[in-house]
Write a structure and sequence with these properties.
Shape of chain A: globular
Order of helices and strands of chain A: HHHEEHEEHEEHHEHEEE
Strand content of chain A: 25-35%
Distance between the termini of chain A: 36 Å
Number of helices of chain A: 8
Number of strands of chain A: 10
Oligomer: homodimer
Radius of gyration of chain A: 20 Å
Helix content of chain A: 25-40%
Strand order of the largest sheet of chain A: 4-5-6-9-8-7
DNA sequence: TTCGATTTGTTCGTATGTATT
DNA sequence: TAATACATACGAACAAATCGA
């Protein structure tokens, strides 16, 4: 394995340990080079990959920081819902349910826990311009979020992933969405004020943190009459 | 603008001109460095970005090549349809219609042409394991594909994007999918052998080549009973 | 098969520029 | 202003893969 890969792995290990607060910088290039006994160029090579993967951000003159948990960045990265033909809009979240439960077989597999283990189940309704557009059903391992209560959850001033990060030191770095079209059941029909049987977009998502560790499983129903799920493949290229 | 960016732009310009055949390598680092009067390291910096963007591939000892039009690579990159909970499967394509038409307002905007301009309209049914899973409606500018006939199209031994590349020198490098849930109309119901009104996943895609030039607009209906559209955000990170 | 030339991959070190504190 | 930290650029050396003589 090349040295820059080894350095990168070690950096990720440190970042995922939660020892680095979101606000203070990592050691400088020179310090890291000395510590790992490699040249500054090798540190840069490792850092360049971490930047490309949105794990860290670097600022000239300031330093290198863990990618921030700001709503702006997280929405931009993990919120693929847009007004049809238009831009992203910020939803208002209503928490409908917040309860403890036990993991069934499917959730247990998704979260990498054992069946019957305690989980939290959170249901949210998301409104844009007063109209219900999304309905969320989130399941997380109870053990991964000690001390999380409904009060703290609804009092958060951040996105859910930002909340995971700032309050529990858990960085969501990757999500996998499985998309299907489904017919609205009675619950969904009522929530979206549409006839039962209407077509809805269903997203079953698993979010991961470092080391491929699952953080949450989330089932989302999206009313795509006015909004849509937008996916860009190859969005990196910006060569006029 | 940094010099490596300028070099990169120039490289993209050359690659998009179609002068580089898919099989022969670009000039070597040393040659490019001499030609652009920069160091080899600067050439590498530009190349690294092009590799990250899947525009070129590099092989130690061989050289640098335009990203190949192989079905393997293109399916892996631009085909997000998987068996539910399973892996990607290769569909069989039936071309149902191949005809000339005129661009309506929506297509004209998507393809960056003027309303009424001649287009090709291609409808395909895609089957996996004998079952119809997708229905495609593809629209491309007639002028962009001179000499394209139904015979050549159905005789192709490649994916459509591979065909664009190998026969017309057009590299698809980015696609934007707009996903909605819709109710099956009579046409779709018949094709998929499902009741009219069933929920289907609709993808409206625009594919782009270099310089943000649109290549095709494609409306796809997906029967997500057994298959699904899968989207990974942050798939770059592979740090155990 | 072996060998040598070619080409990219990795690592090092240095110098200079630019943004931040 | 001065010190700090990242950004850009250059050059050099060696390693590893490829290919043809």
């Amino acid at each position: 394995m090349p040295r820059y890969k080894a350095v990168k792995l070690e950096l990720v290990r440190v970042l995922s340990s939660g020892e680095i607060s979101a606000d203070d910088p990592l050691p400088t290039e020179k310090q890291l080079a000395a510590r790992h006994k490699v040249s500054v160029g090798t540190i840069r090579r490792a850092m360049d990959e971490l930047v490309a993967e949105h794990v860290v951000v670097r600022q000239q003159g300031r330093g290198t920081f863990l990618a921030p948990f700001s709503p702006e960045r997280l929405l931009n990265r993990f919120w693929p819902v847009f007004r049809r033909g238009g831009s992203r809009e910020i939803p208002i979240v209503q928490t409908l349910r917040f309860e403890e439960a036990q993991a069934d077989a499917e959730v247990a597999v998704a979260l990498g826990i054992v069946e019957g283990e305690r989980i939290l189940r959170i249901r949210n309704l998301l409104l844009i311009d007063g109209a219900p557009v999304l309905m969320d059903d989130v399941r997380v391992s109870r053990a991964m979020f000690p001390g999380l209560s409904e009060e703290r959850f609804v009092a958060r001033e951040n996105t859910m992933y930002g909340f995971y990060g700032s309050e529990f030191g858990i960085s969501v770095i990757r999500v996998v969405d499985h998309l299907h079209a489904v017919a609205a059941d009675a619950d969904a029909a009522r929530a979206f004020r549409i006839p039962a049987g209407s077509a809805l977009l269903e997203s079953v998502r698993v979010a991961y943190t470092f080391g491929d560790r699952p953080v949450e499983q989330r089932r989302t129903l999206i009313h795509t009459k006015v909004y849509e799920y937008r996916n860009v493949i190859g969005g990196e290229l910006r060569t006029g």
